[in-house]
Design a protein that fits this description.
The chain has 10 helices and 10 strands. With 302 residues, it is α/β, with parallel strands linked by helices. It folds into 2 domains: 141 residues, Rossmann fold (3-Layer(aba) Sandwich); 146 residues, Reverse transcriptase/Diguanylate cyclase domain (Alpha-Beta Plaits, 2-Layer Sandwich). Helix 1 packs across helix 5. The structure holds magnesium ion. The site of magnesium ion has 5 residues, from loops.
Length: 302
């Protein structure tokens, strides 16, 4: 069984008799892991923060903590460590609550033997591994749903959500909100002449260049292909226009590698009272289109 690989078990238990029983059970089962015993939750947390530990056996009623919060405090401090709660016969319902709140299992004192304990520890470790793997997968999916895979900035879906939120905020606090849309000029030529790898590199580097030169509360996203959006809260059209001009200059001056240069055309607009998300973005798009028509590598306000 898996516990043969266990190195360290932490027992947080203030009753010396109960602690001795656990120790004897583990010894009877031939458990080779080191059993560390502490009497206080604070001591348990500080031990876990400094040492690796395979599993924690936790008495819920300790000198410095009692009830369900004993478990939740421990879990908050060391979310990756499996926890088995030890309850008395009279407070088994605490054990159920503890499992619902993130403990791997509960055992009733006086109703445990070595085999049950051994098996509970084994399953607690395996279940925790699964729980962590599931969380990582979920985090990855959540990230993929809102981040553009190529550039690492927000994708269009996430941008739409943020745009909605910023529009509401601008209306609620009666502040300005402006939108800059830009498109890399003749980008098809970059892909055709240098290949898609270089094209991808240009998109990534352009995104990073912009990200490094906007305020932390400005929102950059990839709108599609070689089109980007910058949402600038608390900026009117003129302020957004100044930012757009700065970004235009940065792109124009940037060496994307081996002397490769690109330019971009910018459309800038400010949120109007009767705007919806689509009318707002459509106006930025029209302004950008105008910048293209008027010779590219320039800015138009609408
Ligand atoms: Mg106790």
């Amino acid at each position: 069984m898996g516990e043969s690989r266990m190195q360290t078990i932490l027992l947080i238990e203030d009753d010396p008799g109960d602690a001795l029983l656990i120790r004897e059970m583990l010894e009877q089962q031939g458990c080779k892991a080191e059993l560390v015993t502490v009497e206080r939750l604070s001591a348990g947390i500080s031990f876990l923060q400094q040492h690796s530990c395979d599993v924690v056996l936790l008495d819920m009623n300790l000198p410095d903590s009692s009830g369900l919060s004993t478990m939740t405090r421990l879990l908050d401090a060391v979310p990756a460590t499996p926890i088995i709660v030890l309850t008395g016969l009279s407070d088994e319902s605490f054990g159920v609550d503890a499992v619902k709140s993130g403990a791997q299992d509960y055992l009733i004192k006086g109703d445990i033997d070595g085999r049950i304990l051994k098996r509970a520890m084994f399953y607690a470790v395996e279940r925790k591994k699964l729980e962590i793997a599931l969380k990582q997968t979920r985090d990855l999916f959540e990230r993929q749903a809102r981040i553009d895979y190529l550039t690492g900035i927000y994708n269009r879906l996430m941008f739409s959500e943020l745009l909605e939120a910023e529009q509401q905020r601008a209306r609620r606090y009666d502040t300005e909100l402006s939108l800059i849309m830009f498109d890399l000029d003749h980008f098809k030529n970059v892909n055709d002449s240098y290949g898609h790898n270089i094209g991808d590199h240009v998109l990534k580097e352009a995104a990073q260049l912009i990200l490094d030169n906007i305020r932390s509360h400005d929102i950059l996203s990839r709108w599609g292909g070689e089109e980007f959006m910058v949402l600038t809260p608390k900026s009117d059209q003129n302020q957004a226009g100044i930012l757009a001009e700065k970004l235009r200059c940065l792109i124009e001056a940037h060496d994307f590698g081996d002397g490769l240069h690109v330019t971009a055309s910018f459309g800038v607009t400010q949120l109007k009272t009767d705007d919806r998300a689509d009318s707002f973005t459509a106006r930025a798009d029209q302004a950008m289109y105008l910048a293209k028509q008027n010779g590219r590598n320039r800015i138009e306000l609408r």
